[in-house]
């Protein structure tokens, strides 16, 4: 996470502190910097090591909600632009603005890889499901 710090300071070791929110606000997109990085234990950050293998732009963004970032099942997906989606755990219209966040698509795919069909959606199209065990259905 401290890309370039060793080269910048020309040192092999650099002390750093990670400021974390309290446990109630701790979401899955926050890396555990007390451990050596591993794609298996930090899948949200896998794109630091792995090649982006989706047919959409790597810098794509998602408007999502806190519940999705806490690991609740994403049940609604909508693609609005070539590089912009909405993905909510629960009903999108019920999500208050204060609970919305914008994150990278890679972050969401790391948290919940079952949303990967969203990368194949046409602009203006969406998917929904009742639960993680449900199949995706076309919106509308």
Provide a descriptive summary of the structure in words.
This protein is of the alpha+beta class and 140 residues long. The protein has one domain (22-29, 36-131). It has helices at residues 5-9, 66-69, 105-111; strands at residues 61-65, 76-81, 84-88, 100-104, 126-128, 137-138. The protein has a six-stranded mixed beta sheet. It is globular and about 55 Å long.
Compose a concise summary of this entry.
The chain is of the alpha+beta class. Helix content is 11%, strand content 19%. The longest helix has 7 residues, at 105-111.
SSE order and pairing:
Layout (H helix, E strand, L loop, with lengths): L4 H5 L51 E5 H4 L6 E6 L2 E5 L11 E5 H7 L14 E3 L8 E2 L2
Parallel strand pairs: 1-3
Antiparallel strand pairs: 1-4, 2-3, 2-5, 5-6
């Amino acid at each position: 996470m401290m890309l370039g710090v060793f080269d910048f300071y020309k040192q092999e070791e650099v002390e750093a502190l990670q400021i974390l929110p309290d446990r109630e606000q701790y979401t899955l997109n926050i890396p555990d910097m007390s451990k050596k990085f591993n794609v298996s234990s930090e899948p949200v950050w896998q794109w630091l090591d792995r090649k982006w293998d989706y047919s959409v732009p790597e810098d794509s963004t998602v408007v999502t909600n806190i519940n999705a970032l806490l690991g609740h099942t994403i049940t609604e997906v909508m693609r609005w632009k070539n590089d912009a989606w909405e993905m909510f755990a629960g009903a999108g219209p019920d999500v208050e603005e204060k609970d919305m966040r914008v994150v990278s698509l890679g972050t969401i795919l790391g948290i919940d890889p079952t949303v990967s069909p969203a990368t194949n959606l046409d602009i203006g199209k969406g998917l929904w499901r009742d639960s993680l065990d449900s199949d995706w259905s076309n919106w509308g």
